[in-house]
Design a protein that fits this description.
- This is Ferredoxin.
- The chain has about 80 residues and is an alpha+beta fold.
- It is built from two helices and four strands.
- A hairpin with a 5-residue loop joins strand 2 and strand 3.
- The radius of gyration is 11 Å and the shape is globular.
- The chain binds FE3-S4 cluster (F3S).
Length: about 80
């Protein structure tokens, strides 16, 4: 299982992740990324399905500030 969330203390609102993985990431009013998949609310408690793993890993690789966190258990 894989879980993800954005560290908004280090996100610089670059906008890459929502383009790479639009099913997982959107932006709040300040442009900071947040995990929205299945209503996760950036809590890192919603399992990301296998079909979205490639998009997720691409987003992690593409984040310039390493703000997209991964875990194999809920945060
Ligand atoms: Fe922020 Fe990284 Fe996405 S800087 S907007 S979490 S690609």
């Amino acid at each position: 299982a894989i879980y993800t969330w954005v560290d908004q203390d280090t996100c610089i609102a670059c906008g890459a992740c929502g383009s790479t993985a639009p099913d997982i990431f959107e932006y709040n009013d300040e442009g900071m990324a947040e995990v929205v998949y299945a209503g996760d609310g950036n809590t890192g408690t919603t399992e990301i399905p296998a079909a979205l793993k490639d998009d997720l890993y691409d987003a992690v690789d593409g984040c310039p500030t390493d703000s997209i966190k991964l875990a194999d258990t809920p945060k």
